[in-house]
Design goal:
Elements lengths: L16 H19 L2 E6 L2 E6 L2 H9 L5 E2 H9 L12 H10 L6 H21 L8 H18 L5 H16 L12 H17 L2 H6 L9 H7 L10 H32 L1 H11 L9 H6 L1 H13 L6 E5 L3 E3 L2 E3 L4 E4 L1 H4 L44 H18 E4 L8 E2 L5 E2 L6 E4 L2
Parallel strand pairs: 2-7
Antiparallel strand pairs: 1-2, 3-4, 4-7, 5-6, 8-11, 9-10
Length: 440
């Protein structure tokens, strides 16, 4: 006989929503201490079952028995704002779209993006020395959004690019509110208006992008997606392209901003690692770093991985049960939400040595703690829905660090700890005040 999942209902209708928004990572710890690695609670009237183990990650993310829907889970919060992105598709439909979406993320396209980003990153980073006081989070958020507009849309330094950025910011802000009802002037209404602007902006340009002459020395994701075709000659509809572009900008911009904030905080707290990375970067002889050179930066990659272990951008990965199933003897009912937590499993002492400590070498080939269980480390999810842009994200983080560490020593007071707001996407709640000490 299957066991009943233990847990708590919390407040009427709200459940534990407020506690989750306040600090979901702390809530995971509290509920684990009370109920163990399998428990339930409620969010906004919906029951959610949590599986806090690498085995739970594997069960949910690999989904070998097709028990779960990503679309139904994410639709609750994103359906009106980011409909039909890759994360909001399932089954054959998801496989078809993911396969077509692969072209903009192949190595030749990534190499072009890297070349295009070098001058913009270099100029922005140098200009940061003029800001006082310097708050890293808004500065890097501005930079990553500008880069997304250039690389994803193929536009920069224009009034239209600014309008795209403004609309996109309004759209992302709307995704983070609890009350999702448009009223005059509120965030949700501004988000829907931003969505409408972006739909018109992309939709009016699709045909021209489809017909534009192919230039192997230039690339932007919008044009690549407009031209994408399967072996059978099938391509995306206009609405598909609009939906994918808006979702891609959100996914790449917000998660990269979160990742860079965590990486730079960790480097400021552990300055010896800044020295190690500068030694690695010294192999680049000029101001522009290439795709191949970024690939050779192994230590920088380890720092990136460790920062995402400690501070994964997504605090939870949800699925919706589409059939009754069981995990380790516990009954999961059709219609229930099922969540796994990157943050929790990234700090399990059974997997990670001194899990609270910043130690990038835990990921090197000699120790390989992330290989102890294939699903202990999941900052980019796993299975069929593993993030398609993870390579692009790593390249962009490495590239920003290359330029940043050429000019500055990153510093914070000895007793400073970054106050972290993990939901809905991780970020420093104080905007991360960093001191940038110019290198001689």
């Amino acid at each position: 006989m299957l066991k009943t999942v233990p847990g708590e209902n919390g407040l009427p209708w709200l459940g534990q929503t407020l506690a989750f928004m306040r600090n979901c990572n702390q809530l995971y710890e509290t509920m684990y201490q009370r109920h163990g690695a399998v428990y339930f609670n409620r969010f906004l009237g919906q029951k959610a079952v949590h599986l806090l183990s690498p085995e739970g990650n594997e069960f949910v993310l690999l989904d070998r028995d097709k028990n779960f829907s990503s679309r139904l889970a994410w639709n609750r919060s994103l359906k009106e704002l980011f409909p039909n992105g890759l994360m909001l598709r399932d089954g054959d439909d998801h496989r078809f779209h993911r396969r077509l979406m692969g072209a903009p993320f192949k190595s030749d396209a990534l190499a072009l993006y890297v070349d295009a980003m070098n001058p913009d990153i270099d100029a922005a980073v140098q200009a940061w020395s003029q800001r006082s006081p310097f708050l890293f989070y808004p500065a890097i958020k501005e930079l990553t959004l500008d880069l997304a507009t250039k690389i994803f849309v193929g536009e920069s330094l224009s009034d239209e690019a600014n309008d795209v950025n403004t609309s996109f910011v309004d759209l992302v802000n709307a995704a983070m509110v609890i009350v999702r009802y448009p009223m005059l002037g509120n965030k949700y209404q501004r988000g829907l208006a931003g969505r409408a602007y972006l739909e018109e902006h992309f939709g009016s340009r699709i045909e021209a992008r489809r017909k534009s002459a192919y230039n192997p020395s230039e690339a932007d994701m919008f044009t690549e997606i407009c031209r994408a075709q399967s072996d059978e000659g099938e391509g995306f509809s206009d609405q598909d392209i609009i939906d994918h572009m808006i979702f891609l900008m959100m996914a790449a911009h917000d998660t990269t901003t979160s990742s860079l904030s965590s990486v730079c905080f960790a480097l400021a707290k552990h300055p010896q690692w800044q020295d190690k990375l500068r030694e690695e970067h010294a192999a680049v002889e000029n101001n522009s770093v290439s795709y191949a050179q970024l690939g050779d930066m192994q230590l920088t990659g380890l720092v990136f991985k460790e920062a995402l272990r400690l501070y994964p951008p997504l605090p939870t990965i949800p699925r919706h049960a589409i059939r009754d199933c069981e995990f380790e003897g516990y009954a999961i009912k059709r219609g229930e939400q099922v969540h796994v937590s990157p943050y929790f499993t990234h700090r399990l002492a059974s997997i990670w040595k001194d899990p609270q400590c910043f130690d990038p070498l835990r990921f090197d080939k000699q120790r390989a703690e992330d290989k102890i269980h294939r699903h202990a480390y999941i900052p980019f999810g796993g299975g069929a829905h593993k993030c398609l842009g993870l390579k692009f994200a790593e390249l962009q983080v490495k590239q920003v660090l290359f330029h940043l560490l050429r000019y500055y020593q990153l510093e914070v007071p000895t007793d400073y700890e970054m106050p972290y707001q993990p939901a809905p996407i991780g970020k420093p709640s104080d905007a991360l005040p960093l001191s940038l000490k110019t290198l001689g």
